[in-house]
Design a protein that fits this description.
The complex is a heterodimer of chains A (356) and B (335). Chain A is α/β, with parallel strands linked by helices and 356 residues long. Chain A has twelve helices and twelve strands. In chain B, the strands form two sheets. A two-stranded antiparallel ribbon of chain B has the order 1-4. Chain B has a two-stranded antiparallel sheet with strand order 2-3. Classes of the chains: A alpha/beta (356), B mainly alpha (335).
Chain lengths: 356, 335
């Protein structure tokens, strides 16, 4: 019996040692710190012109709540917001733990209300479900800057700022339509790779794309949905490339899943078509800049909007307006244009691109 | 009639479970092959110009490779009477760990080794918790699913980590073709062959059936059931590590979003393949055929421009149909 125990103990010891050893070996590999030189070469927000509004004003406390970042775009939202806040000596930035749980986000916003922040910037997980708590903030006299996903009730926010999903589809449609018209293609094969099909934003993007293409007399040949993830992009693109032996153009809704789409295209060795991306990730921009990729263009849905939202929140709390406008107060709603990035202007956008 | 054969191949097993297994395996595989053939006919009729091209068949195999490798490990675990819910998350973790800037600085071989070590390590943790910590497999691997996904997000800072150009050797697994097939399909085939041999031609394999069929009897027959159980989860983890290399090759990235719901796809493939969820019976070939059926369905739906929701419905129906057939087969045999 004791021999047995000893054997077990020795084996356990050896085994434990092996596990610890392997652990030590691999922990050395989890660092993701880029070398210092690289880090400084990647500014994430272009310096804006200094206006009167940038001069320090009344001290303000800005509360911030957004979903947990399971996607490069959302991660960039939090980063942009924080960086914009850091630029101002008069801003105290109070972010709460990001979460994908509606319940938790509601209580996080409640805690911000209790802390009596001067203004709130909210990107809700779901506008409908966070509407109540945003309304409570407004009722408590805290202005809410609603970021991107809109609250249904106008009493729940002071200002809305967000992207234009329909416009994104339109921009992609125009780029593809114009280019194919120039080439004189009559019956082009145009493919569309969507994000998550059930989301209203995806449906708006598709509608805009369809409407813009129609003005050129074109239509979408085939449409498939992916999940906004790299892997789903690869799977859908692999199959789509099999289904269509000759393609003229592809619009992929999202640059994050676009990494996977490009991997599938590379694997299949196809290059008879051109592709348009969506959102505006740094990676997509580098592909466009290289000039050798099928990815020629991307239409923005830029997370820099979070930086703008924080700036607006500051102005609202300080009672200032936007200096370029005649009005004394910040507007009630701002829809950002979806900008088209091609090889010609990519230089100018690269600093704004988000790492996916 | 074939009792002698049974006795020689399954000395450690109580009764003639092994004999029944052989027969069930054959007929069930026949059903799967017929199903696959039917799908092929549908493909040939609906998209004659696209379906039967070598290119399309290659891409079906390439798509099946990643989950295929995981399915092999899953088959071992389920035959051994367990379940591994953590496979997708462990694969994601391994892909992220292997693509951090620090790991990438050591080159492609270390990246591959890292993926396999992380996968096997996570599998071992599962195995130790289940075999020696007496946790229910469902709970232990569920905990691993959540924790591994979290750790993957933590390490990657929820970003998609691209494979750097100097480590393109990994990506070449998917872009380099030998005899018309990408290298990763060969890796998949190798894992299947090795898995098949281990399961069907070694003591380890026979013990796996014994442990899953009746752990108490296996213990009395002198098998160290706990150690064996632990090793089964380590095999599953190892397979996740290999799968991580394949997904890195296919997508050129490591990401915490990789392998979402792979556990369900792998379990479904194993069940369709005729492996009993209660353990003790099953086959790797069946699991792979089950997986191919799923992959071909996805391919057919996209070739025909149908939407994803209908595809999910079709997959659900197939799972139910397969299990119903399985049960009828069992009842028929007992009567």
């Amino acid at each position: 019996m004791s021999r047995q125990d000893a054997r077990l103990a020795r084996r356990g010891f050896l085994f434990g040692g092996a596990v610890v050893g392997a652990g030590a070996l691999v922990t050395a590999c989890t660092s993701n710190e880029p070398p210092a030189a690289q880090q400084s070469a990647a500014p994430s927000q272009a310096p804006a012109a200094v206006t009167d509004n940038d001069r320090p004003g009344r001290e303000v406390k800005i509360g911030f709540s957004a979903p947990a970042a399971d996607h490069g775009w959302i991660a960039a939202i939090a980063k942009n917001a924080e960086e914009a806040a850091k630029r101002y000596s008069d801003v105290t930035f109070v972010p709460v733990e990001p979460t994908n749980d509606i319940n938790q986000q509601i209580s996080a916003v409640e805690s911000l209300i209790q802390q009596k922040v001067d203004v709130l910037v909210l990107l809700p997980n779901d506008g409908e479900q966070l509407n109540q708590v945003a309304r409570r903030a407004m009722d408590a006299g805290i202005p809410v800057v609603n970021l991107d996903r809109i609250f249904p009730d106008k009493l729940s926010y002071r200002t809305w700022i967000g992207g234009d999903n329909y416009g994104m589809g339109v921009a992609a449609g125009h780029y593809i339509g114009r280019k194919l018209k120039e080439k004189g293609v009559t019956d082009p094969v145009i493919l569309e790779i969507q994000g998550i099909a059930t989301l209203p934003l995806t449906q708006e993007r598709s509608k805009g794309f369809e409407d813009a293409l129609r003005t050129y007399g074109y239509r979408v040949t085939a449409r498939q949905d992916a999940q906004f993830t790299v892997e789903s992009g690869t799977e859908v693109a692999t199959n789509l490339l099999q289904a269509h032996k000759k393609i003229d153009a592809i619009w992929n809704h999202d640059d994050d899943q676009g990494v996977g789409v490009l991997a599938a295209i590379k694997e299949a060795g196809r290059n008879e078509f051109f592709m348009v991306g969506g959102a505006g990730s740094a990676n997509a921009m580098r592909e466009i800049q290289s000039g050798t990729s099928v990815l020629e263009c991307t239409v923005t849905y830029s997370p820099t909007m979070a930086g703008s939202a924080v700036k607006l929140a500051r102005l609202i709390a300080q009672g200032r307006g936007m200096s370029d406008l005649v009005e004394q107060q910040v507007p009630q709603s701002i829809t950002l244009a979806s900008e088209t990035i091609t090889k010609d202007n990519v230089e100018q956008y690269l600093p704004l691109g988000f790492e996916s | 009639m074939t009792e002698t054969k049974a006795r020689t191949t399954a000395r450690a097993l109580p009764g003639t479970a092994r004999l029944r297994l052989g027969r069930v395996g054959e007929t069930r595989h026949l059903g799967l092959i017929v199903a696959l053939a039917l799908l092929a006919v549908v493909g040939l009729i609906t998209r004659p110009e696209n379906f039967a091209t070598s290119d399309n068949l290659v891409s079906i195999l390439a798509l099946a490779s990643t989950i295929g490798v995981i399915t092999v490990g899953m088959t071992f675990v389920i035959i051994g009477g367990g379940i591994d819910l953590s496979v997708g998350a462990v694969m994601a973790l391994a892909s992220v760990w292997a693509t951090t800037l620090a790991t990438q600085s050591y080159g492609p071989w270390v990246m591959a080794l890292c993926a396999i070590l992380v996968g096997t390590g996570a599998g071992l943790v599962n195995g130790i918790l289940i075999a020696y910590g007496r946790l229910v497999p469902f709970i232990a691997t569920l905990a691993m699913l959540v924790a591994a996904r979290g750790l993957a997000q933590r390490i990657s800072d929820r970003k998609t980590q691209l494979i750097r150009p100097e480590n393109d050797a990994i990506v070449e697994l998917s872009t380099t073709r030998v005899l018309g097939l990408p290298l990763l399909v060969y890796i998949f085939a190798l894992v299947v062959v090795v898995g098949w041999i281990v399961l069907n031609r070694t003591t380890f394999g026979r013990r796996t059936f014994a442990v899953g069929g009746n752990p108490e009897a296996a213990r009395l027959a002198g098998i160290d059931v706990r150690r064996h159980t632990m090793l089964l989860y380590a095999i599953s983890g190892f397979c996740c590590g290999v799968a991580a290399i394949l997904i890195m090759a296919r997508t050129t990235t490591g990401s915490s979003t990789h392998g979402d719901l792979y556990e369900l796809d792998a379990i479904a493939a194993v069940i369709i393949g005729g492996t009993l969820l209660t353990g003790g019976r099953g086959s790797i070939i069946g699991s792979i055929l089950g997986l191919l059926i799923f992959t071909v369905i996805t391919n057919l739906f996209i070739l025909n421009g149908l939407n994803t929701s209908d595809q999910l419905i079709a997959k659900g129906l197939i799972i139910v149909a397969a299990v119903l057939l399985q049960r009828r087969g069992l009842v028929g045999r007992r009567a």
